Amino acid sequence: MNSSLPQVRRTAVYVYQAPLRAWHWINALSITILAISGYLIGSPLPTLPGEASDHYVMGYIRFAHFAAAYVFVIAFLFRIYWAFAGNRYSHQLFTLPFWRASFWHELIHEVRWYAFKETEPAKYIGHNPLAHLFMVVIITVGGLVMIVTGFALYSEQTGLGSWQDELFGWVIPFVGQSQDVRMWHHWGMWVIVVFVMLHVYTAIREDIMSRQSLISTMISGWRMFKDDRP
Amino acid sequence: MPTTETYYEVMRRQGITRRSFLKFCSLTATALGLAPTFAGKIAHAMETKPRIPVVWLHGLECTCCSESFIRSAHPLVSDVILSMISLDYDDLIMAAAGHQAEAILEEVRHKHAGNYILAVEGNPPLNQDGMSCIIGGRPFVEQLLEMADSCKAVISWGSCASWGCVQAARPNPTRATPVHEVIRDKPVIKVPGCPPIAEVMTGVLTYILTFDRLPELDRQGRPLMFYGQRIHDKCYRRPHFDAGQFVESWDDEGARRGYCLYKVGCKGPTTYNACSTIRWNGGVSFPIQSGHGCIGCSEDGFWDKGSFYQHVTDTHAFGIEANADRTGIAVATGVGAAIAAHAAVSVYKHAQDKKGDDQA
């Protein structure tokens, strides 16, 4: 009797452990705050009337930016720690199998899937190769660039001799001058904004169209596969 | 008895009273950020120490550094420092000319070997064998290297000597090169600005005399006491910045009320100089106080950083001029449209596949 009903067997793997999921969402929140407040530092809100002592708008916006930046950095450091402490999928963000031919074959397959040239995507327990590449380049390398340039700019107000200056002050003459650092930090924001757009879209799309779960995985940690085929 | 006159002797000879002299000492101590007790030390140094011979060379420049220097607010400074330097070499203001003038250089080089300060205004062009700047019939770069050989230290006056300034702006046809890229074996103190503030210039010289050492420099070789903070950090309009009150366009109500000039392109937040504290023309004013944003004239390559009236400036890369915000918004919009199109096709495909599955 039951055999007449369509049967879908789902297998599941526990991929994202709780600390990693927490990191993901904290990271998402801090990036959102950083992008919005950062944009408003570059292009401030319209002028407010009244005395200067009545308002502290730029002060609050900058505070939000710096506070979120510290959260982002501490989360980033935690994430590096978790690459060692977590399960076998946790170090994917910091490693790229650049010399493995299969990685690039699978990556091309994934690109073809997005270009509607493949009828079916492959199954991956961790990131698919395309996502993997993007994660390493944007989140790890890009995040690091934003942290370094960000602290260099922050050191301008903490002043010479502050630990931010000792650690990151060299970045300013290395890049050129303060304005150049600002400009590249600004470009970095747009790169991350575009990445977030793609990331959210592909996560939703793959959740519906691929053979595995994505969004629920980042909430529960379990990767569900929709079929048993390889 | 020292072979060379002390500063104090020169000052007295110039008719400066002791009272004015002491005023100068305490003013300088304050300008250098020293404790009040240092005024005495400065006075003592000026009374007892022989002058440091200074040779002031001019390369590719507009002479605005010298113009600023001779307009030094404190009359004492202009009188004294000016007479002091004219004793040695400064082709702009010395009496000697031609071969006589060049002979002085030779003399200083041998008599004060290892002791004199080489102050350089402007920079040497290196293209066409340095032919774009000829002094005494020879390329300036030759004179510069010759004099640098036996000097004690080099002071790069102004943005030309420090960074290259306008003649080094893209595409820099003469390959005007900052002094520190030509002289590599001597300490170089950069005193950038277009021009630098007069009191900063005299302050640096006074420091070297008083303490017999070069002032502490930052990573880029600028004296910390004058270039340790940004214009923005000490700007009197900073409360308007923090409050989010900006001049939105010229001649608006905000401009009349003296709001922050950030939105009309003020480079105060990215410029290291002492304008907002020492100010100009005897502390009368400085650009921001006069209602115009800082153009960042003491920063490296300020001519090539886009408009003076734009805060988020253009990016010059691969020959393309792009503004981060304009490009960013355009790309984000494009990607958004692409996502929407891709999503539409995906929905269509998905629906088709579903139909296929149902039929199967």
Automatic annotation (TrEMBL), chain A:
Keyword Hydrolase among UniProt keywords: no
Predominant localisation class: membrane
GO biological process, one term: respiratory electron transport chain
Domain Cytochrome b561 bacterial/Ni-hydrogenase, first and last residues per copy: 15-221
Family annotation (InterPro entries): Cyt_b561_bac/Ni-Hgenase, Di-haem_cyt_TM, Hydrogenase_cytochrome, Ni-dep_Hydgase_cyt-B
An example molecular function term from Gene Ontology annotations: heme binding
UniProt membrane topology term: Multi-pass membrane protein
Alphabetized SUPFAM superfamilies for the sequence: Transmembrane di-heme cytochromes (SSF81342)
Alphabetical UniProt keywords: Cell membrane, Electron transport, Heme, Iron, Membrane, Metal-binding, Transmembrane, Transmembrane helix, Transport
Location in or out of the cell: Cell membrane
TM segment ranges: 20-41, 61-82, 133-154, 187-204
Family, per entry: Belongs to the HupC/HyaC/HydC family.
Function in brief: Probable b-type cytochrome.
Stated name of the protein: Ni/Fe-hydrogenase, b-type cytochrome subunit
TrEMBL record, chain B:
Assembly: Heterodimer of a large and a small subunit.
Amino acids binding [4Fe-4S] cluster 2: H232, C235, C260, C266
Protein's name according to its UniProt entry: hydrogenase (acceptor)
Domain of life: Bacteria
Class of this enzyme: oxidoreductase
Principal location: membrane
PROSITE patterns linked: TAT
Family matches, as Pfam families: NiFe_hyd_SSU_C, Oxidored_q6
InterPro entries: Cytochrome-c3_hydrogenase_C, NADH_UbQ_OxRdtase-like_20kDa, NiFe-Hase_small_C_sf, NiFe_Hase_small_N_sf, NiFe_hydrogenase_ssu, TAT_signal, TAT_signal_bac_arc
Binding site residues for [3Fe-4S] cluster: C275, C294, C297
Keywords: 3Fe-4S, 4Fe-4S, Cell membrane, Iron, Iron-sulfur, Membrane, Metal-binding, Oxidoreductase, Signal
Subcellular location: Cell membrane
Family as reported in the entry's similarity comment: Belongs to the [NiFe]/[NiFeSe] hydrogenase small subunit family.
One of the record's GO cellular component terms: ferredoxin hydrogenase complex
SUPFAM superfamilies registered for this protein in UniProt: HydA/Nqo6-like
One of the GO BP terms on file: anaerobic respiration
Cofactor(s) in the UniProt record: [4Fe-4S] cluster; [3Fe-4S] cluster
Listed GO MF terms: 3 iron, 4 sulfur cluster binding; 4 iron, 4 sulfur cluster binding; electron transfer activity; ferredoxin hydrogenase activity; hydrogenase (acceptor) activity; metal ion binding
